[in-house]
């Protein structure tokens, strides 16, 4: 079995998600966050989600909001996904 390093995921009442092992955040908005972790690509889905803590040097992330689901997906990377920001500038520059 391969050794991937520290990877801990905890969810408190579907309202707060803590994750260790984050390598890259690909895109994020209130409904979806895509991440590269040391265990592969991770997609978070929910409502009103926002990142309250991110430290890529330590590989830690905290997300608050309502968590509907999460999925690890093989063969994908968050580095290749486009940002899904809903802001005026992002829409203007499409």
Explain what you see:
InterPro entries: Spore_YabP, Spore_YabP/YqfC, YabP_sf. This is Sporulation protein YabP. The chain is mainly beta and 94 residues long. It has a single domain, classed as Immunoglobulin-like, CATH 2.60.40.2000. The protein contains one helix and six strands. It has a six-stranded antiparallel beta sheet with strand order 1-2-6-5-4-3, with no helix packed on it. Strand 4 and strand 5 form a beta hairpin. The mean pLDDT is 85.
Determine the N-to-C terminus distance: 43 Å
> What portion of residues is helical?
under 10%
The CATH class assignment is Mainly Beta
Structural class: mainly beta
Shape assignment = globular
Question: Tally the helices: what do you get?
Answer: 1
Total domain count: 1
Protein name: Sporulation protein YabP
Pfam families: YabP (PF07873)
GO biological process, one term: sporulation resulting in formation of a cellular spore
InterPro entries: Spore_YabP (IPR012504), Spore_YabP/YqfC (IPR022476), YabP_sf (IPR038705)
């Amino acid at each position: 079995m391969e050794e991937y390093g520290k990877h801990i995921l905890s969810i408190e009442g579907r309202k707060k998600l803590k994750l260790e092992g984050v390598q890259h955040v690909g895109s994020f908005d209130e409904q979806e966050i895509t991440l590269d972790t040391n265990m592969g690509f991770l997609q978070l889905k929910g409502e009103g989600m926002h990142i309250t803590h991110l430290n890529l040097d330590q590989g830690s992330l905290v997300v608050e909001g309502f968590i509907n689901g999460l999925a690890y997906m093989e063969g994908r990377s968050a580095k290749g996904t486009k940002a899904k920001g809903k802001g005026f500038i992002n829409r203007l520059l499409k």
